[in-house]
User: What shape does this take?
Amino acid sequence: MINSTYIILIILGVVILWVVIAYNSFISFINHTKNAWADIDVQLKRRYDLISNLVETVKGYAKHEKGVFEEITKARTQALSAKSVAEKETADNMVTSTLKSLFAVAENYPKLMASENFAKLQDELTDTENKIEASRRFYNANVRDLNIKIEIFPYNLLANIFGFQQQEFFKADQEAKKEIKVSI
Assistant: This one.
C-alpha cells in the first residue's frame, strides 16, 4: 500500500512538474512573439516618420502633386492607427503602394533626385525597409514556433485548458515591395 502511494505521488509530481514547465514554455513563446511584434512596430513607426520627411522634401519641388501627398498622408495615418496584425498588414500594403506613387513623382524632378537631403532620406528608407523585412521574418518565426507548440500533442491539451490562441502571421504584399524604387 505504501509503495503504490509513493508511486502515485511520484507520477502526480511528474505530471505537475511537466504542466508547470509546459505552461512556462508557452509564456516564453508568447513573450518572444510579443517582443518580435514590438520590433516590427518600431520599424514601421520609423518608416512612417521617414515618409513624412520624404513628403515634405518632395512637396518643396512638386507643389502641384497634391493628390499624391494626400494619399500618402491618409495611408500613413491609417497605418499609425492600426492595432491588429491584419490591420497593420493592410496598412503596410497601402503605404507601400503610395510610396511607389511618391517615387514616381520624384523621378519627374531632377533637382529633387539630386538633392542630398532626398538621397539621405531614400537611404534611410531603404535601411528601414530591410529592417522591417528582417523583423517580419523574426516575428513570423516566433509565431510559427508558438503555433506549432499550440497544435502538437500533448501541449494542445494545455493550450486549450489555459486558453492560449494561435497568432496571425504578418504578411506583406511582396510584389508591391519589389516595385518600390528607393535608391537613386
Q: What stands out?
A: The mean pLDDT is 81. Helices lie at 2-61, 66-81, 85-106, 110-114, 116-151, 155-162, 174-179. The chain is about 85% helix and 0% strand. Residues 2-61 form the longest helix (60 residues).
